[in-house]
Write a structure and sequence with these properties.
alpha+beta, Jelly Rolls, elongated
Length: about 160
């Protein structure tokens, strides 16, 4: 093979390596063209009740923004034989809306001398809440006779958009 063909093949090989490397390091188009008016949002609210059947908690949506809730996940620990439920309240254009989530039993667990039932929620959504308003949670159980303290942890993920 002549020397010029050899250099040509080496040059083509180097260009191919750099082109492949550049393609592998390129971020997806969605990441490159990020909408500056949207910001990722995530928060967790923990609710605890030693007695009673209902607990409440909330967070406030930042002023000047609208929250688009895209996913809600929650976990509940209740006394053995008790059931758990989760409601969420949001406000959009001055009107409060109620949202209800399906809880799925995970079974009975034991830690030390205590046994308890666990429920989970994992729900994709598209729910809106205006800036300056609370996103409120009500966690329910059907009984409080077990004496077990109910614990609920709720995490909301989504985006904040400018109003």
């Amino acid at each position: 093979m002549s020397r010029s063909k050899h250099y040509l093949l080496v040059g083509v090989g180097i260009v191919a390596v750099f082109a492949t490397s550049a393609l592998m390091n390129t971020r997806p188009a969605a990441a490159q063209n990020k909408d500056a008016s949207k910001d990722a949002f995530q928060t967790t609210v923990t609710l605890t009740a030693t007695s009673g059947v209902q607990m409440t908690g909330n967070f406030i949506v930042p002023a000047g923004k609208r929250l688009v809730i895209e996913h809600v996940t929650a976990g509940f620990s209740v006394g053995v034989g008790e059931k758990a439920a989760l409601d969420m309240h949001t406000s959009l254009d001055g009107t409060t809306r109620f949202h209800f989530f399906v809880t799925t039993p995970q079974g009975t667990f034991t830690a030390g001398a205590s046994s308890y039932d666990v429920f989970r929620v994992s729900q994709p959504t598209r729910i809106y809440a205006d800036g300056g308003t609370p996103v409120s949670f009500i966690s329910w159980r059907n009984s409080s006779t077990s004496g077990f303290a109910m614990v609920s942890v709720v995490t909301v993920s989504g985006t904040l958009t400018n109003l």
